[in-house]
Amino acid sequence: MPRKSLGVMTESMFYTIMAFQAGPRCGTEISALIEELTGGRIQLGPGTLYTILSKFLEVGYLREVSVEGRKRTYRLTEDGRQAYKTELARLNQCILDASAVATFALREGDAPNESENFAMAPAPMPGL
């Protein structure tokens, strides 16, 4: 049971918890997956990553499952899975809201100019 909720996750936190959807991972595996997944857009340094992992351990989103020398492997808990699903739903709602605003703007005759991309709505992220 988590001691407290972290509330809305930062982008780095979200990608870190997302990395555990495929199973247990160590820090270097998490960093490599996030960098690959985002095409290098997000590169987590060790300070950022281990601060996030520490917070996730503190609130009960992760559990350490093995230690081999300095390599620590973590697994997502049920609370962590629920936190991921909650944040994913929040982000998907943001996308739906952005699409609704675009539809409203077009209906009101306020067509977006070329620099605005109101109609762009990425596909929902996997994991729900």
Question: How would you describe this protein?
Answer:
- The chain has 128 residues and is mainly alpha-helical.
- It has helices at 11-19, 27-37, 46-59, 78-107, and strands spanning 25-26, 62-68, 71-76.
- It has one domain: Arc Repressor Mutant, subunit A.
- Helix content is 50%, strand content 12%.
- It has a 3-stranded antiparallel sheet.
- A hairpin with a 2-residue loop joins strand 2 and strand 3.
- It is elongated and about 65 Å long.
- The mean pLDDT is 85.
Describe, in short, the structure shown.
The chain has 128 residues and is mainly alpha-helical. The protein has helices spanning 11-19, 27-37, 46-59, 78-107; strands at residues 25-26, 62-68, 71-76. The protein is elongated, with a radius of gyration of 18 Å.
Largest sheet: 3 strands, antiparallel
Strand order of the largest sheet: 1-3-2
Percent range for helical residues?
Answer: 40-55%
Number of helices, counting only DSSP H or I runs of 4 residues or more:
4
Apparent shape: elongated
Mean pLDDT: 85
Number of domains: 1
CATH arch. level architecture? Orthogonal Bundle
Q: What is the H-and-E element order?
A: HEHHEEH
**CATH superfamily membership:** Winged helix-like DNA-binding domain superfamily/Winged helix DNA-binding domain
Low-confidence stretches: none
First-residue to last-residue Cα separation: 21 Å
Q: Looking at CATH, which topology would you report?
A: Arc Repressor Mutant, subunit A
Beta-strand portion reads 5-15%
Rg (CA only) = 18 Å
Task: Classify the oligomer.
Answer: single chain
Quick one: how many beta strands? 3
